Amino acid sequence: MIPEAREVHLSRKDRKVLEACCRSPVTLQRDLKRARIVLLAADGRSTRSIAKEVGVQPRIVSLWRHRYADHGLEGLQDKPRPGKQPIYTKTTDKRILKLLDKPPPQGFARWTGPLLAEALGDVDVQYVWRFLRSHKIDLVARKSWCESNDPNFTAKAADVVGLYVAPPAKAIVLCVDEKPSIQALERAQGYLKLPNGRALTGQSHDYKRHDTTTLFAALEVATGKIIATHSKRRRRVEFLDFMNSVTAAFPNRKLHVILDNLNTHKKNEDWLKAHPNVQFHFTPTSASWLNQVEVWFSILQGQSLSGTSFTSLKQLQEHIDAYVNAYNDRAEPFVWTKKKVRQRRFKGRRITQL
């Protein structure tokens, strides 16, 4: 049964708004029909005649007549609908995060989606996965870090970074370190064709070892070029011999040498007195990543050493020397982009004793 028709009285302002809505080509059909219903009702038309002209049910016309009569133009807007109450809320999300801060069940190395759902008891595993993806939490990927406990971390780091971004005038800044025990491994290598027709490069798991070499390297920060030499061992005497060759490569120049905290790098006051143009700068404890030559060692490993085979120690050393020469032909300085160096402990750091 259709309710009794309500009288509709339009103000000039509301009529202009509704007429503009009817003329606009971008008006939604639902809004257009509601505007026409109210305009026709204001002209004294009956509910059934309006319904026939607009193309809707009479009850729809009665609804919008009443809505406009009671609430004006605001009554022509859709009311908010409550919808279905969500099963999981922010409280559920907090429970998942809180559980991730706890150790996994006994016998397991890490949490998984099913383990989290099982521990929560009332949360579906699919929601757990969705929550982890939305927060970019990867339960499988692992990163390692080394937290420096050096009380003078900030001062030492600022000293090293200052040499990178603002080196002293007319001075050479060098990053020096060793890559010890590089093995000359002989492995069978070649192409492996899989049953599906795909061909891969590979090497055998078994190998023959032909001794090791220690590579001393100095990276010139301004140019990116490398000075390198091989040694059987990495004692203080070998380190100072390498430093003698470095100073000989830059005669009569002030040298600022960045080193890590290896014992052989320290307590060399007698050598430094004999070379007053050389000054040592040490990275903070457990922060050798500040030494740019470590970046070059990583490049050397990836581009020259990984996946290679050597039949002798001499072949390995010649191979590295050839790479150093090729690298120096196209060397470029590393761009240091760090703007702030500060020491901050990990939030909620936990050490588990086994």
Textual characterization of the structure:
Helix 10 links the parallel strand 4 and strand 5. The protein contains twelve helices and five strands. It is elongated and about 110 Å long. A five-stranded mixed beta sheet has the order 3-2-1-4-5. With 354 residues, the protein is α/β, with parallel strands linked by helices. The model is unreliable at 350-354 (pLDDT under 50). Helix content is 40%, strand content 18%.
Tally of separate helices? 12
Query: How far is the first residue's CA from the last residue's CA?
Result: 78 Å
- Could you say which overall geometry the principal axes of the C-alpha atoms support? elongated
The string of secondary-structure elements, in order, is HHHHHHHHEEEHEHEHH
Which consecutive residue ranges, at least 5 long each, have pLDDT under 50? 350-354
Determine the structural class based on helices, strands and strand pairing.
alpha/beta
Main sheet attributes: strand count, strand direction, barrel closure: 5 strands, mixed
User: In which range does the helix fraction lie?
Assistant: 25-40%
- Average of the residue pLDDT scores: 88
**Radius of gyration using CA atoms only:** 38 Å
Query: How many beta-strand runs?
Result: 5
Task: Trace the largest sheet across and list its strands.
Answer: 3-2-1-4-5
Strand content: 15-25%
Question: How would you summarize what this structure contains?
Answer:
Helix content is 40%, strand content 18%. The chain has 12 helices and 5 strands. It has helices spanning 12-23, 29-42, 47-54, 58-71, 90-100, 113-120, 125-134, 153-165, 236-249, 269-274, 293-305, 313-329, and strands spanning 171-193, 199-220, 226-231, 254-259, 278-282.
